[in-house]
Amino acid sequence: MLERPRVCYDRILPRDLRRFARLRMLGPSRAAVLRAKKWPNGSTLRVSFIGGNSTQQDIVRQFAPQWSQHANLKLDFTNAPDADIRISFVDFDGAWSYIGIDCKDIPLNEATMNLGWQDEGVVLHEFGHAIGLIHEHQNPEGGIKWNRENVIRDLSGPPNNWDLATIEHNMFQAYARDQINGTSLDPKSIMLYAIPASWTLDGFQSEPNEVLSEVDKKFIGDQVNYPFEASEVQELPVAETTQAEIGQAGEQDLYQFSARSEGRYTIETEGPTDMVMALYGPDSRTHLIADDDDSGTDHNAKIVADLMPGTYFVQVRHYNTSGGMGSYGIKVSRA
Questions:
Q1: CB within 8 Å of 285: residues ≥ 6 apart
Q2: Residue 14: pLDDT band by 50, 70, 90 thresholds?
Q3: Strand runs (DSSP E) across 130-217, as ranges?
Q4: What CATH number did the domain enclosing 302 receive?
Q5: What is the pLDDT of residues 227-245, one digit of tens each?
Q6: Can you give the pTM of this predicted structure?
């Protein structure tokens, strides 16, 4: 009996399930990052383990940092209970990860990633999800003619043991075009797992990819993802309005300001552009305090929060990540 493929799956927050579009494409797929799930550029992501033996943990420490060689993100392995990425090693639960900043919505006593088996390929693949990458075959720019009956049959049994809803989401559905930054075809991407010919109607198949491809390396450090040259953070003075612009689709601007004393602070955008904003800190680019869409005037974002002294980071983007651009103002004030 042939061994059935081991396939990872994405953990998706319930609020996002309605956003997926049915896959109706021709041909193979492309690498893609979910724009709204990216961490702030230049972040240090803390990684902790929930169980696992020293050998399992060492495999993660050995391979996962490869992403940091090509993306402006650092990994800090720690025992902190509030780490950004928390890894379990439950062998009967397969391999999976939440995508990007969705990890921040998971209770601290729960894992954000599981490695039911460990090798270079699966570690790189799951950490690709953890920094915002989706599966190649779920990119709306391309797709696969699935043999649904065979896929469902194989993935319903071991080693995956998926229910039908999990198969539908992870195999047959794609993200909407306005959600992603994508590349041209890359059949060698670490985010495209092995697909046997029996799973397709036209004979398409792919071999296991165990290392980062050249496109993976270039793409993750692209200007729209995690570029090294764009790591500077703009200082945001308190009580003054800073004028700025979203100059290209998917752009995210990052600011920082200092709360010199404890108190209530208001951070808000101004102008005609529909903005979305997230506040992180204190002294952390990944500790999410609050996010907002339309609480300000018109379609502007506004966050009011009681803050302790420290440095805070503000990430802003256009609501329309597929084509939204425009000027805006941003201001921090203290009550």
A1: 39, 40, 42, 43, 44, 254, 313
A2: low
A3: 173-174, 180-185
A4: 2.60.120.380
A5: 886 556 899 998 899 999 9
A6: 0.71
